[in-house]
Structure formats: structure tokens, C-alpha cells
Design a protein that fits this description.
Length: 313
């Protein structure tokens, strides 16, 4: 225990810097909607850890800015802070917008990482404010630079140059529950932006399936995993290599060709109740899986309970 004391003291100092910075950011970005935390319980957990009331860190501090960086369009800047930020780990800062393609959002994220590595010289102190200020001041140039990079990378395709094989992937994700409308919207938007197919079942339990190119399914997982979950895990990951340019082969591997949808599997839908509060009919869900050639997943999701025709509690 004594050997861990210096580590805990350093950890507490890092977390205190995170909270102090968030308080400062709240004073600067004080207009309604500019800065939000989805779960203020994370701040309570960090404060309890710093004060010694608890020895467990159950959450990370994450928050989002919503700023008018485009004409008639607000842009989200999502910030997730690892427990050892700022001195030992970098924050995850992601830009999200309905009008920015997902592949360009990934390049913007890479550019932010490069800025931190090259321009943030003093990382002993918190620096999210510096990064967000840089994004605000240079957003138009950042968009232009990442768009130009996209065009330049597209050119070799017309020359007949060889490309690497594509990996098709299907992820089965299981969570204790999914009720938040914001999470549900994020899941649907992210999957559709990445051109993934599959479904999401909100409620308790929550089940998500996404399929498509591995780069996109992994990006989907990286996007939704930092959201506040009581428990979330990948139950099964299926992969298969497809020859470059094999769109037909990729399409044949998909089990949910209609796109990505939210499915409820409710036998008797009460119009006055929220969808996520409705019990899931196992019978309807099993039929859905069989219809889409996914009967094999029953055991992975439910063990031997997959054959029981009873509502999930």
C-alpha cells in the first residue's frame, strides 16, 4: 500500500488540474449550450477520490463544446480526459459536425494530435483551453487542409495502382442498458455516417451490431465507448478479408443490407411509454436474428437463455 502512495498522490494532482481547468473553461464558455457535461457524477467521483472518500475511479472526465465555427452550423468538440492527463497522457479531442464527412473528422483528429505533440511544450499543466482556442482560430484552414489531403489521396486510384485488401468486420456489442436519447442519436448518426449496417436495440439490455470495413467499425467503437455506460463490451468480433475493390463480396457478407436501424422488438407497444422502457420480446428478437442469418449469436449474447421465450428484465 505504501508503495502506491506516491502514485496516488500524483494521480490526485493530475485530477485536480483537470477539475480546475474545467472550472476555468466553464467561466469562459458560459453561454447556454457552449460547454456541457453529460454526467456530472464523474465530477463527484473525481472529487471523492481526491479527498480520499473513495479509492475507486469509476469514470473519466469528458465534456463537449458546441461552438458556431461554421456559417449557420454549430460544431461539437468532444473532450475525453484520461486519468493521467495532463502530464502523462494526452486528451482525446474529436470534432463532430453533421456537415463534415467522418473520414475528414478522423483527419482533423490526427491534426489535433500532431498540434499537441509539436506545439504544446509545457504538458505539466492542463492545456485543453490552448487546443480549443487553436481550433477556433484556425478552423477554416484546418478544414481546407484536411479536404485537400483527401483529394490528393484519391488521385492514385485512377492510375491503377495496387491497393491493400479490405477487412470486413462485424461487431456485436452488449451493454447493461441504453436509455439516453443523446447516446441513441450518437449511435445512429455515427453508424450511418460511417456507412455501417446493422441495428441498435435500446433498453435493458442494449444490443448493438455494426458491420462494414474494419476501419469504420473500429472508429464506431472508439466513438461510442467513451460515452457513459454502466457496462459495455464487445461480445463477438467477426472478420473476413476481402480483395481490394470487392464491393460485391463486401455486400454479400453483410447480414443487414437495409442499412442501420434502431429496433425495439416489443410485442405490445404502449404508445404512452418510452421505447427504452418496453420489455424486449425474446421471441421477436430470435426471429429477427434467424431472418438475418445471425442465429449463432444467441449463445454469445445470452448463453443458454437465448432459447427462452421470455421478456428481458
Amino acid at each position: 500500500m505504501d508503495e502506491q502512495a506516491p502514485h496516488k498522490d500524483r494521480q490526485k494532482k493530475e485530477l485536480q488540474k483537470q477539475l480546475d481547468e474545467f472550472q476555468m473553461l466553464s467561466a469562459i464558455y458560459c453561454n447556454p449550450g457552449e460547454l456541457r457535461v453529460d454526467d456530472y457524477g464523474c465530477i463527484d467521483n473525481l472529487n471523492s477520490y481526491i479527498s480520499g472518500e473513495t479509492d475507486r475511479l469509476t469514470t473519466k472526465l469528458d465534456y463537449r463544446f458546441e461552438l458556431p465555427l461554421l456559417p449557420d452550423q454549430k460544431v461539437q468538440i468532444l473532450v475525453e480526459l484520461p486519468h493521467r492527463y495532463p502530464a502523462q497522457e494526452m486528451p482525446r479531442i474529436v470534432i463532430r459536425s453533421a456537415v463534415i464527412p467522418r473520414d475528414q473528422e478522423r483527419r482533423l483528429t490526427d491534426r489535433i494530435v500532431r498540434y499537441i505533440e509539436e506545439e504544446v511544450l509545457e504538458r505539466d499543466e492542463a492545456y485543453v483551453l490552448q487546443v480549443v482556442g487553436w481550433i477556433q482560430d484556425n478552423f477554416a484552414e484546418l478544414l481546407a487542409a484536411t479536404a485537400e489531403r483527401k483529394e490528393s489521396k484519391a488521385c492514385p486510384r485512377s492510375t491503377g495502382a495496387t491497393t491493400s485488401p479490405i477487412v470486413f468486420e462485424r461487431l456485436w456489442i452488449y451493454s447493461h442498458h441504453l436509455k439516453s436519447k443523446m447516446k441513441r442519436q450518437t449511435i445512429i448518426k455515427t453508424a450511418r455516417d460511417l456507412r455501417l449496417t446493422g441495428f441498435s436495440r435500446p433498453g435493458k439490455p442494449a444490443i448493438i451490431c455494426v458491420e462494414g470495413q474494419q476501419a469504420d467499425t473500429q472508429e464506431f467503437w472508439r466513438t461510442i465507448k467513451p460515452l457513459k455506460w454502466q457496462k459495455i463490451q464487445i461480445k463477438l468480433c467477426e472478420t473476413e478479408t476481402v480483395a481490394a475493390g470487392g464491393e460485391n463480396e463486401m455486400a454479400a457478407l453483410r447480414h443487414f443490407a437495409a442499412g442501420f436501424r434502431e429496433e425495439l422488438f416489443c410485442a405490445d407497444m404502449d404508445e404512452d411509454s418510452d421505447a427504452e422502457d418496453q420489455p424486449m420480446s425474446m421471441s421477436l428478437f430470435m426471429k429477427f436474428l434467424d431472418k438475418h442469418r445471425c442465429g449463432y449469436i444467441k449463445k454469445e449474447l445470452f448463453g443458454f437463455q437465448g432459447a427462452i421465450d421470455a421478456p428481458a428484465s
